[in-house]
């Protein structure tokens, strides 16, 4: 990881109504990465992002943003899509994007030129002169996202960016995120939808009940769970159940169970010797969704203990 990260946070704490919504969070976001902050609804993701950006101040801990100890000093270098969307409904799409760029120091004529190009590149060129009130919710959300990148920020922060988008616009957003990373920007986004995180994230943190419960790559998160075996017998007589591991569960015409610690070879030999045969066999690592459920479930159990 870079010696000069885009974001650092140490021991961040933020309370609301006596509750520690952010509870001692530590983060290091390397430059040039897509970094995900994952967690269930109410986990503290939005408050964490706002604290990192300096929109709200922590009661404890410290953070830096693009090397600045006071995050607001870096505001012109940051693009931000908040969870609460908001554009002036009477503005045309191109002007709305240029206006957001102007708020970050981008000259108005250059902002209009970049806005038109961005709309065209993302399949919305025809909407450049349409007023925001005439656009669908998903189109307006993409316009606001383009407004957050028009000034070519070093850091792009997206809070639940996929919420409310149809599959086509979700694909456009994923492509835009990857294009911004390839341009050299750092992207930090929050989500509770694991499919987007698994496809996009170079690294991620999982937050539950205000605490950071995991930090690492998608593969490191998936490696927290044992590999799974999906076995389909050629002759599925009832007696097969006695030969399978205790955690085996029926799946269609086969069975799913954790890969035994001693490996699969001995079990397969017993199944073949017993006459059940092998019609299908696969060994795979559980997905990020399963790892997320385990990590969040462990956090809930810890809090309840």
Describe what this molecule looks like in 3D.
This protein has helices at residues 45-53, 93-103, 108-121, 137-149, 167-183, 194-200, 218-222, 265-273, 288-304; strands spanning 7-16, 19-29, 34-38, 60-65, 78-81, 155-159, 186-191, 203-208, 211-216, 228-232, 249-251, 254-258, 280-284. The protein contains nine helices and 13 strands. With 305 residues, it is an alpha/beta fold. α2 (93-103) crosses α3 (108-121) and α2 (93-103) runs parallel beside α4. β11 (249-251) and β12 form a beta hairpin. The strands form three sheets. A six-stranded mixed sheet has the order 5-6-7-3-8-9, sandwiched between helices. It has a four-stranded antiparallel sheet with strand order 11-12-10-13, with no helix packed on it.
Alpha-beta content class: alpha/beta
What is the residue-averaged pLDDT? 92
Low-confidence residue ranges: none
Question: Strand sequence of the main sheet, in spatial order?
Answer: 5-6-7-3-8-9
- Major sheet size, sense and barrel closure: 6 strands, mixed
Instruction: Encode the helix/strand succession as letters.
Output: EEEHEEHHHEHEHEEHEEEHEH
The number of distinct helices, counting runs of at least 4 residues, comes to 9
Helix content: 25-40%
Number of strands: 13
Give the termini separation.
36 Å
3D shape:
elongated
- Radius of gyration, whole Å: 24 Å
